[in-house]
Design brief:
This protein is mainly α. It has one domain: Phosphate transport system protein phou homolog 2, domain 2 (Methane Monooxygenase Hydroxylase, Chain G, domain 1, Up-down Bundle), CATH 1.20.58. The mean pLDDT is about 85.
């Protein structure tokens, strides 16, 4: 690899690392928000979340432009092209995770029954923690060139999916439908939106893990049912 091409690849990797850290920080802020049991988002916290979202969007644009330049100007060989295309897929999914965080910050203030939300916040946090772990391991897989971390993330997607269904059932059993039925229904709708969005974060983590394995081994695991194979 010539020096110019190597520097271009290092620049993309550096931007990816920075973007990953901002996304993980965004998820940490979301966890703190849910743990607060409050449907009111402090202005300072919302300002940080908005600032991170702007940075994430800018990273996606910058990295995409860098990748295009590498493909057009540096003429990467097959293995290098595989790396940059995997990076492009991961960046796209990181940006969607950022969008998911923003969606949840819009759902929370719409909740009408704070008591139900307070009862559910712990289990929602547990589900979020599981999804964040998937994101972390997927990123680590690519950075460290370790496919085992990616395999763990892909397998754990099933666990998060099951948590989604259990949380919805638990939310219904905890509701007191004899009082403020309309508010409860609105609350359950928003809870379902939050839970489903967290599940999508786990799905994006799976996509990142699959892209990492593609970068490491050249194997495309998308739509394959048995990861052990």
């Amino acid at each position: 690899m010539n020096i110019q091409k190597e520097n271009a690849m290092l620049q993309v990797r550096s931007l990816f690392d920075e973007m990953s850290q901002v996304v993980l920080h965004q998820l940490d802020l979301l966890e703190k928000l849910i743990n607060s049991n409050s449907i009111t988002i402090p202005d300072e916290l919302m300002a940080m979340i908005n600032a991170n979202e702007s940075r994430i969007d800018q990273f996606e644009i910058s990295i995409s432009e860098e990748i295009i330049d590498i493909i057009v100007l540096q003429k990467p060989v097959a293995s290098e092209l595989r790396q940059v295309m995997a990076l492009y897929q991961m960046v796209s999914n990181l940006e969607r995770i950022g969008d998911s965080v923003m969606n949840i910050t819009r759902f929370i203030p719409r909740i009408k029954d704070i008591d139900v939300y307070s009862k559910m916040s712990e289990v929602i946090t547990n589900m979020l923690i599981a999804s964040v772990s998937m994101v972390q391991k997927s990123i680590l897989s690519f950075v460290a060139g370790d496919k085992n971390e990616a395999i763990w993330a892909i397998k754990n997607d099933v666990v998060v999916d099951e948590m989604n269904h259990k949380l919805i059932r638990k939310a219904i059993t905890k509701g007191n439908f004899s009082e403020e039925t309309q508010h409860l229904l609105f609350t359950f709708i928003q809870l379902n939106s939050i839970i489903s969005t967290i599940e999508r974060i786990a799905d994006h983590a799976t996509n990142i893990a699959e892209a990492s394995i593609y970068a490491i081994e050249g194997r495309d695991l998308r739509h394959q049912k048995d990861i052990d194979e």
